Amino acid sequence: MSVTVRQVRTGLNGDEAVAYAVLHADVDVISAYPITPQTIIVERLSEFVYNGELDAEFIPVESEHSALSAALGASLAGARVFTATASQGLALMYEILYIVSSLRAPVVMALGNRAFSAPINIHCSHDDAYAARDAGWIQFFAETVQEAYDLTLIAFRVSEDERVLFPSIVNLDGFILTHSIEPLHVFSSKDDVSKFLPERDPVNAIDPDNPITYGPLALQNYYMEIKRQQAEALFNSKKIIDEVFDEYSEFSGRRYVPVKKLFVDDAETVFVLLGSTAGTMRHMVRKWRREGKKVGVVSLTLYRPFPEKEFVESVKDVENLVVMDRSFSYGSPGGQLYMDVSAALIRAGVSPRVLNVIYGLGGRDFTPDLAEKALEVATSTDVPLIWLGVRGD
Amino acid sequence: MDRWPSKWMDLPIGGVINIPGTSTWVKTGTWRSHRPVVDLDKCIKCLMCWVSCPDNSIIRLDDDYVDVDYTYCKGCGICANVCPTKAIDMIEEGGR
User: CA A142 to CA A151: how far, in whole Å?
Assistant: First the structure.
């Protein structure tokens, strides 16, 4: 596929960018309930449907539990389906999250990452993304508004691929991306995007002439085989995600890979993280390199399935790893990404010094000064875990 | 086919049931602790047992008398309970 499709340079916030991607994906059903910081997405989509730009069913449900339930039903009927939520809304969807992935129903969800209550906070943590990490959804993390747009289109293509058939979450940091206007390129029409994302061709769609049963009982005799199949299928989706990343890279002219690396090859210290903070760290790493410090950064565009092989390959020779979590797994050895990384390292037989940095909870700014502090701790002590920028430590 | 494949890779994706009639593979008659036995001398052919059976295990005969399909009858006793003439007895399985 060659780059022949016209794109428009414009300025949008992350929510609007996602809404445009959903418009360009020509979805059939949108089922969502508004919640900050995701609300603008569904507001724009309801406008697109109302003014006729998008020929879709917009279902204004009474809760997030219903939002995902309706999305599931529409997906099983063969529709292209979108929903969006954040934080408490994701929590209310929780039981349906597992059902959607287990029934192998393609649904794309934008998650405007926001802290869980209490205390009530509308700003960015990755609590909600991590809460969904075991639920069997594919998860992407956007670093920029451009990536939020692109990954939404990629997510539809990946989820609906008959070799995949899993729902996807596109994570975008609450307010930092959802409400910040950034320049980006968008495609100019649904028709153009359809060259990358054709109409959905559903597998096992609900059809009165060919009745099948979705969601039956399976007890001691079959439950484990069904779950084993699901686990294998999600791992196997990785190679299709690679394929779609490559194809979209060519289609859009913007390169997508599961693991993004900067200055990693000869680095002594490498920061590992998700989401918009990767941009800040890239800036810092360039500065440190000018000062002669051998520091690199790895950020994961793909979080589930965990791109274990590429990740381990990229950090296997590093002395110090700094794993940054914008959340904490209370009562656990550390943050959620830290535990993924640690398991991957142990399995690969490599054992760098690993520092887990808890940062930015509830939208607290991650500043260059804090990055300097993290580098200092990582390279001068054996402390395993710090809460960065917290008063009292 | 009278049972699902045993290996995980051979099962339909998502645990869907993609062929009809698979419930007949489950011989629910083995669950029974008490079996319904019909006394046709008391039966008035009202068919209350036939309409009430949750498992289609009361067989309606040509003359509207009834018989029991013991392959699937779980022995729930609903038929005996609804019978207006007490024509159905629940007899303990394997016993006396």
Answer: 7
- Following DSSP, what letter does each residue of A368-393 receive, concatenated? HHHHHHHHHHHHH----EEETT-TT-
Q: Which residues contact A222 (CB under 8 A, 6 or more apart)?
A: B4, B11, B15
Which token pair is B93? 């399985």
- Angle at which helix A145-160 crosses helix A14-24, to 10 degrees, equals 30
Tell me if domain A7-252 and domain A261-387 are identical in fold: yes
Note the pLDDT tens digit of each residue in A290-300.
Answer: 999 999 999 99
Domain spanning B29-92: CATH 2.60.40.10: no
Cis? peptide before A305, omega within 30° of 0:
yes
* A to B CB pairs, distance under 8 Å: 49
Q: What are all long-range contacts of A374-377, with beta carbons under 8 Å and residues at least 24 apart?
A: A374/A271, A374/A322, A374/A324, A375/A269, A375/A288, A375/A293, A375/A295, A375/A322
Say yes or no: B7 contacts chain A, CB-CB below 8 A: yes
Q: Which residues contact B20 (CB under 8 A, 6 or more apart)?
A: A211
Whether the Cβ atoms of residue A245 and residue A154 lie closer than 8 Å to each other: yes
- Report the DSSP beta bridge partners of residue A271: A297, A322
In CATH, what number does A261-387 get? 3.40.50.920
Of the candidates A137, A149, A162, A152, which has an alpha carbon nearest to the alpha carbon of residue A68?
A137
Using alpha carbons only, how large is chain B's radius of gyration in Å? Answer: 17
Cβ within 8 Å, pair A228-B8: yes
Domain ranges of chain B: 29-92
Interface of A with B in 148-177 (CB under 8 A): 165
In this predicted model, what pLDDT tens digit does every residue of A47-59 receive, in sequence order? 999 999 999 999 9
Is the ipTM higher than 0.90? The answer is no
Say how far apart CA B36 and CA A154 lie, in whole Å.
60
d(CA A231, CA A234): 5
Domain A7-252: which topology?
A: Rossmann fold (3.40.50)
Report CB contact under 8 Å: B13, A204: yes
A236 C-beta neighbours (distance < 10 Å), count: 12
What are the extents of the domains in chain A? 7-252, 261-387
Spell out the alpha helix ranges (H) of A181-275.
190-193, 223-252
pTM: 0.93
Which amino acid is located at B45 in the chain? K
Q: Would you say A59 and A73 are in contact if contact means Cβ atoms under 8 Å apart?
A: no
Report the SS3 class of residue A250: helix
Residue A5: which pLDDT band, with cuts at 50, 70 and 90?
Answer: confident
Q: What is the largest CA-CA distance in chain B?
A: 55
